[in-house]
Amino acid sequence: MSGKKFFGKIFSGYLFLHLLAMVVVVVALCLGVKYGLDIYTHHGEGIEVPNLYGLDYYEMRNRLEDQNLIVEVNDSGYNKLMASGSILSQTPGAGTMVKEGRVIYVTINSASSPAVTIPDIIDNSSFREAQARLTAIGFRLMDPEVIRGERDWVYGVKAGNRNLQAGDKVPVETVLTLVIGSGVTEEDLEDAMLDVPLDGGEVDDFEVVE
Fold first, then answer.
1. How large is the average pLDDT for residues 89-95?
2. Is the pLDDT of residue 8 over 50?
C-alpha cells in the first residue's frame, strides 16, 4: 500500500466519525455517572435539624420521625431548672442540613440529681481539706457541728440526722454537715481535773463544747 493511500484512510471521514462517536460515548458516560450519583445521594437535598434544646424528648422524637430522622439518647445529665426528659444537647447541632435517615443524638435531663460518692475524709482530713473536696464535687455545706476532739479534725459527715460513711452515694444536691473537733480533748479534761485544788478553792471556768 502506498503512503498516499495509507494516510488517506487515516484521515478519511469514516475514521473521524468513529473518533467522534467515542468522544460522545465517553462524555455521556461521565455525565451519566455524575448526575446518577447526584440523584442516588439526593445531592443538594436535605432536612434542616431544628433546635431541640429544652424540648421534650418523646415529643420531638415523634415529630422528627415524621421527617424520616431518627432520634437516639446517648447520654443524660441534670439541670434542676429544666423538666425531666427535656433535651440538654444534640448532635448534629441546630441548623445542620442532613439527609433522611440521619440519627440525631441527644442528651436528656434526668428526673433526679446524680448520686455522688462521699470521699474518704472521715477521721482522715482537716476541716479545710474536707470542705475543699466536698465543695469541689458540688456539695453544699452547712455550718459544722463541733464536738469534743482535736481542733478542726473531721470526725463525721451528716446529711440531716443521717451519719454518712466514706463510699456512700447521695444526690449531689444534698446539704452536708461536717462534724469537727473543738480543740478540747479527753486529755484536756483530765488535766483540768488534776488542777482542782484539794483545799476546795475555786478554779477558773473550763468550758467544753459538746
1. 93
2. yes
- The string of pLDDT tens digits covering residues 27-57 is 777 666 666 655 555 555 688 999 999 999 9
How far is Cα of residue 59 from the mean position of the Cα atoms in its chain?
23
What's the pLDDT at 155? 96
> Beta partners for 180?
146, 154
- The grid coordinates of residue 6 equal 495509507
- Residues in Cβ contact with 175 at an 8 Å cutoff, skipping those fewer than 6 apart: 139, 140, 141, 142, 159
Q: Is the pTM of this model over 0.90?
A: no
Give the C-alpha distances (Å, rounded to integers) separating 179 from 67, 118, 135, 162, 170.
58, 14, 16, 12, 17
